[in-house]
């Protein structure tokens, strides 16, 4: 008899970082993510929807930029303006398509992210 195996969710989405302390400060103090765990190697932050976002420095020092995370916001323009005023590197252009509004940002480590507002 076979037992079905399925993935039930994502526990942590992590970006690699070069400087864990600098990156933690950015995501905690600039972006406002509550830090739930930190060490010399990295940190984790729990978002209001229960998702966990993490940072990690590899033991061997290897690093490459991460991308692809869309952080949901209620108003992409207001969010972009807010985070830009706090020191975040977020472009002025708001991308608009049939499904959403997006503003593109970059953290202190060179990882890119998107502020994302679904339509409707």
Write out key terms for the chains shown:
120 residues, single chain, four-stranded mixed beta sheet, globular, alpha/beta
Provide a descriptive summary of the structure in words:
With 120 residues, the chain is an alpha/beta fold. It is 18% helix and 37% strand. The protein is built from two helices and eight strands, in the order E-H-E-E-E-E-H-E-E-E. The chain has helices spanning 20-30, 76-85, and strands at residues 13-16, 35-38, 42-46, 52-56, 69-72, 89-96, 100-106, 112-118. The strands form two sheets. The chain has a four-stranded mixed β-sheet with strand order 1-4-3-2, with helices on one face. Strands 5-8-7-6 form a four-stranded mixed β-sheet, covered by helices on one side. A hairpin with a 5-residue loop joins strand 3 (42-46) and strand 4 (52-56). The longest helix has 11 residues, at 20-30. The mean pLDDT is 94.
């Amino acid at each position: 008899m076979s037992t079905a195996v399925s993935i039930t969710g994502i526990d942590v989405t992590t970006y690699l970082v070069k400087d864990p302390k600098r990156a933690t400060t950015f995501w905690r103090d600039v972006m406002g993510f509550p830090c739930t765990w930190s060490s010399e190697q990295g940190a984790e932050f729990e978002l209001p929807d229960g998702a966990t976002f993490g940072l990690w420095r590899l033991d061997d020092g290897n690093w490459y930029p991460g991308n692809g995370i869309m952080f949901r916001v209620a108003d992409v323009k207001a969010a972009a303006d807010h985070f830009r005023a706090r020191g975040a590197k977020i472009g002025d252009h708001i991308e608009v398509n049939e499904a959403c509004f997006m503003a593109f940002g970059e953290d202190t480590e060179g990882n890119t992210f998107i502020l994302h507002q679904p339509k409707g």
